[in-house]
Amino acid sequence: VSDTVQLRIPGPTPLPETVRKAGSRQMVNHRGPEFKELLGRVTASMKKAFRTDAEVLILTSSGTGALEAAVVNTLSPGDSVLSVNIGVFGDRFAKICRAYGADVTTLAVEHGKAADPSEVGAQLRVMAENGKPATAVLVTFNETSTGVTNPLQEIAREIHQQAPDALLLVDAVSGLGAIPLEMDAWGLDVVTTGSQKSWMVPPGLAMVALSPRAWAAVERSKMPRFYFDLTLHRDALAKGETPWTPAISVAFGLDEGLRLIEAEGYPAIFARHAACAAAARAGLRALGIRLLADPEVASNTVTSAWLPVGTEWPALTRACRARGLVLAGGQGPLTGKIFRVGHLGSVSTNDMVRCMEILEDAMTELGLQVEPGAGARAAAEAARSATNGATEREPVFATPA
Amino acid sequence: VSDTVQLRIPGPTPLPETVRKAGSRQMVNHRGPEFKELLGRVTASMKKAFRTDAEVLILTSSGTGALEAAVVNTLSPGDSVLSVNIGVFGDRFAKICRAYGADVTTLAVEHGKAADPSEVGAQLRVMAENGKPATAVLVTFNETSTGVTNPLQEIAREIHQQAPDALLLVDAVSGLGAIPLEMDAWGLDVVTTGSQKSWMVPPGLAMVALSPRAWAAVERSKMPRFYFDLTLHRDALAKGETPWTPAISVAFGLDEGLRLIEAEGYPAIFARHAACAAAARAGLRALGIRLLADPEVASNTVTSAWLPVGTEWPALTRACRARGLVLAGGQGPLTGKIFRVGHLGSVSTNDMVRCMEILEDAMTELGLQVEPGAGARAAAEAARSATNGATEREPVFATPA
User: Which of A2, A6, A24, A27 to mutate to test the interface with B (most CBs of B within 10 A)?
Assistant: First the structure.
């Protein structure tokens, strides 16, 4: 049944057929030659995705585990940390720091907005003036809970100018691989992602890379760690292994997901996500739905929208599910206020058109006034215009039928 | 190719066909009704496996992550801890405690032996007399690195007598589900396992359960934690969720693995593992190989053996691999000295006979003197005698062809 479902949440994302098949392979010894070869291939491909010369370490955890690894390997209790918080995942990053004893200052941004680089810089100056200059700055690349992408390159530039010694720890879980990010060129110190996002693979693996500066910080760091001790991961990788038994079937899938990704190529993938996002935004607006995110910074991987007036989330999701469309609800303070449409990983603009057709149907059942066909038409039009009128080239991988 | 391989390592264990198929299902929303239903089913089944009324929490990590969870949720920096250490995994449990600031006293046992309950009791008395009574005792149920099963019930009884307030944290990763263990009846406070062991599922999920006494300790515990914060896991489970995105495809597999296990029944599973272990030990001895583990306490899930004199592990594993048999090498101080035969999860006594045939062939290639057919004959005979001469009933799940 779930094979015919439009899974339009910002992760886990739908699996291409060949990824599912790869994930069903028989087990191998994770300390043997087959896994060593796979790990070498996957980490080499990930370095290209991260745009870095640093090693990319593969952890068996969700993306949150990679965020914890970023924190506990580079910081010490009492360290002054600036958290640039634009939503639930920014909040989570800060909570991890606090759990391990860091002194966190929060720059909270209104939901739906991105962080203003100059405000980040100003906050860093204030912290320095108050005698607690930031040891690290936490930034979310793409905030899944609000559907906003931060201007990461500009924020990074500002941080490097105002606090050249501060490490920049980036939650890139739901953006990397779908939206351009340059780890080395932008001077990002720790970058994290998770298998169930743009990589089109089941959840279970998380990826993290550290700049040379971040590795130097690891030597000084005094937060306790074991499972997420990245020094152990780095040493094991040098032998073609992971320190603990890895999620092998997810790694099989990741190997195949990366093969599909490299065949399509990142420029095409970035353009496809931009076209899907344009289609989602135009389609929702044409259905009379108000978007949450500032259009200037709206995410290319997830679109957040206010629930139509008088519509409750449980009723909307039930009506959509009954028609084979799975959307995401709001998180944290936005629970019951917004809903979200994921367009990340194995997704085409045709999926977006279909999504609007189903949503229109569901809204009609709930008694909402909708102009027939308007959502799907607007989505198709936006997709055409995003792809310059060219007939959309379907991605090289098959989306679920 | 790997489908025809005899994967005879102590985890990951071979996957039954239906587990592979289940693991290749399309993704679902981990915050939706399908996953909630699955999580309810899996945790209910796990409670029966753990023999406990406590909730069994499902973590996305290797078994090592569950060990870390056991430690950081119940202890505080400076706590006095007794580590009953009979091998590499006992050592790892102690390292986790030290990484988080516990004061660890080690009771080290010679490799191949089990811990003596009275020595554990004596050590606890010494610690109390020295003014640092143990807050917790770490015990490995089944030590994968040496192939030894500790007399856990007797050790638990001794601990409860000598140090009634000490928590008993148990690494049951490679034993639970294959060798009888009674969490509640034996008074175990924290019990852990991992999906890639007796559960016949890929690695990626770990399970942990806490006694009411252990949950009370969680309230007092001051070690920092976030990803492995079990209070967050318990609260999420009450809503039918996990706090972070779980390894969904592994959970699909676990659901199917547990269905197969309940269909076979634990008494039959325990007997099958005992018969496979008897076959492995008899077969290896008949090949002229000396076993590491004391026969009184030799594990039913993994058999450890000394490398034949003059034989190097790389040569042995290469010769076996060329014939479709994957064995495990030694770990830690036993690297290059022993090898290990896993018989855990989806395994039959026929697999053990086949394993001895291949091993004989490999040994002959390496120039070792072996009596033709002796290993396989002895394995078959031991299996017959373990099953009281009855024709072995094949397990209900299909082992890989």
Answer: A27
